[in-house]
Amino acid sequence: MKRYETLFIVQSELSSDDITAIIDRYSKIITDMKGTILKVERWGKRKLAYLIRKQSRGFYILIDFAGKREIVAELERILKFDDKVLKYMSVKLADSIVTTPMISLLTKLENAAGGVVITASHNPAKWNGFKIKGEFGGPAHPEMIAVVEKELARVMKRKRIPPGKLSFAQLVAKKKIVPISMRQRYLDDLATKIDIGRIKAAGTRILYDVMHGAGQSAIHSLLPGVTLLHETFNPSFGGVNPEPLAHNLSELIERMKGGQYDLGMATDGDADRIGAVDEKGNFVDSHRVFSILPRSVPSTPATSTFAK
C-alpha cells in the first residue's frame, strides 16, 4: 500500500463536534476501503490566501493514511460535494517526461478535477506554457479557462507573489505531491486497444522523428526496433518548430528516399500531433493519416464513426 496525505479546509465557524464528525466521516471511508489511518492533524483556523465562497478563514485538516489509490479518488469524489468543505487538493505528478495523451488518459483514470501539461506543444520554444485538461481528459472548455484567467488576473495584480512555505522535496515528502508512473499505465492501456505483437511481427521498418519531444519516452517500450531521429531532449528543439509538417521534416524525408525504411513518422513536442512519410519520401499530413486508419480495421462497418 502507498502512503497518501489529504489536506482539506472546512468552514471556520464549525464547532469542535462538527469538525470531529467530518474527520470521522472521511476516516471511515478510508478504513472501509481497507486503508489504514496513520495520523490526523487539526491545523486549526488560518487565514486563506484568497476568498473562497466569501470566506477569509478556514479550518485546516490533514489525514495521513496508507492504502490503494482508489481511496484517494473516492475521498476527492465526496469532498467535491461536501458543502462544509471549502477546498481540498491532491497533486499527482508524472515521475518522468510524458506526452499530452498520457496526461489526458491519466486525468480520466485518476478521476482528477483536471490535468496540466507544461509544453510549447508544436510552437517555438519561447511559447512554452500550460495546457489545461478538463476532468474528461480533453482540452478544457472556454468556461473552464475563464475561471483560470480570472484567478490569474487577480494574482497578476499583486506587487509580490508570496514565496512557497515548503520546497518541492518537502511537498513530495509530505505526500502533497505524489509522483506516479503515467507512462507505464498509458502503455498498459494502449496494449488493450491495439495488437502490439502483430505490429512487431510485421517487421515494418520504421523511422521516427521525435523532433526532440516527449514522444521518445515511450516508443522503444512499444517497438524496440524503431530507429529514432532527433531523440535527445532539447528545450529549444534544435531551432526548428516541433510541428510535423513537411518543411520541418527535411531530414526524415531525405532518409526515407534512401529505401531503408517502410514508414516514416513524426510527432510534435508533446506528441499529440502526427505526420508521416511514405517509403518514397512523400509527406502524408495528419488529415490523410486519420483517413487511412479506418481502412486498417477491416471488421469495422463502413458506417462507423471515428473520432479524431
Q: Could you name the CATH homologous superfamily of one domain? A: Alpha-D-Glucose-1,6-Bisphosphate, subunit A, domain 3
Low-confidence region ranges: none
The termini sit apart by 38 Å
Helix content: 25-40%
Q: How do the helices and strands follow one another from N- to C-terminus?
A: EHEEHEEHEEHHEHHEHEHEEEH
Number of helices: 10
Characterize the main sheet: 5 strands, mixed
Q: Label the CATH architecture of one domain.
A: 3-Layer(aba) Sandwich
Strand content: 25-35%
Q: Strand tally, please?
A: 13
Shape verdict: elongated
**What structural class results from the helix and strand content?**
alpha/beta
Q: Given this structure, which CATH class of one domain is correct?
A: Alpha Beta
Rg value = 24 Å
Overall pLDDT level: 87
Order of strands in the sheet with the most strands? 10-9-11-12-13
CATH fold name of one domain, please?
Alpha-D-Glucose-1,6-Bisphosphate, Chain A, domain 3
Can you walk through the features of this model?
The protein is elongated, with a radius of gyration of 24 Å. The strands form four sheets. The protein has a five-stranded mixed β-sheet with strand order 10-9-11-12-13. A four-stranded antiparallel β-sheet has the order 2-3-1-4, covered by helices on one side. Strands 5-8 form a two-stranded parallel sheet. Helix 3 packs across helix 6. The mean pLDDT is 87. It is of the alpha/beta class. Among the domains are: 89 residues, Ribosomal protein S6/Translation elongation factor EF1B (Alpha-Beta Plaits); 102 residues, Alpha-D-Glucose-1,6-Bisphosphate, subunit A, domain 3 (Alpha-D-Glucose-1,6-Bisphosphate, Chain A, domain 3), CATH 3.40.120. Helix content is 31%, strand content 26%.
